[in-house]
Amino acid sequence: MTTATKDLYTIMHERKSVRKYDPSFKMTQAELAEIITEATSAPSSSNLQPWRFIVIQDDATKKELRAIANNQEQIETSSAVIAVLGDAEMYKNVEKIYTQNVVEGHMGEEQKNITISNTHRMYPHAPLEVRQNIASFDAGLISMQLMLIAKEKGFDTVTMGGFDKVKFAERFELPENQFPIVLIAIGKAAAPAFGSSRLPLEDIARFI
Q1: What residues does 158 pair with on adjacent strands?
Q2: Domain Nitroreductase: where (predicted)?
Q3: How many domains, in total, are found in the chain?
């Protein structure tokens, strides 16, 4: 079965958290851009798309990042590290997003204006913590989608939440409205990933 013919379930089960990468394997910027672009079809609260990305391919920068990411080897050996950020001021793009919705024929002008008005009434007045939680949740949706797309294209990934977020924000000079959420190493596996068990359905779900 080739990658192109694999179905979603196969990709889901074949995707593993890979921590050993071939450091000689290099992805192109175009390949990385395509994966992120495809992943942006993920849903988000009010379609405000609060995710932002820093794609780190430079070897010297990855070495710096490793020092603030608990010395995790995959930071340096992977082809790239995709830092997934959240934008707590996601509502500031509402006019751009919903104007484009009208241009693409997804809604009419009246619905656009109602949505923009509702967004301006709600989001700017929500506590910062609430807006950060929204952005973090939406970042989780696009991160999972990104990893599945990467696997479908023949690449391996692992997510990393264990890094110094304060130092990351300082090193990459994030504006106040943006904050780091997770790092995703991506590249080609140099060794098989460990398998992992899952709790049985009766331990995690109630049917009422």
Answers
A1: 185
A2: 14-188
A3: 1
Return the number of other C-beta atoms located less than 10 Å from residue 186's C-beta. Answer: 24
Question: What single letter denotes the amino acid at residue 191?
Answer: A
DSSP string, 31-88: HHHHHHHHHTTS--GGG---EEEEEE--HHHHHHHHHTTTT-THHHHSSEEEEEEEET
| Residue 59 belongs to domain spanning | 3-43+51-88+128-191
Amino acid at 51: W
Condensed to tens digits (0 to 9), the pLDDT of residues 95-154 reads 999 999 999 999 999 999 999 999 999 999 999 999 999 999 999 999 999 999 999 999
pTM (two decimals): 0.94
Provide the CATH number for the domain around residue 77: 3.40.109.10
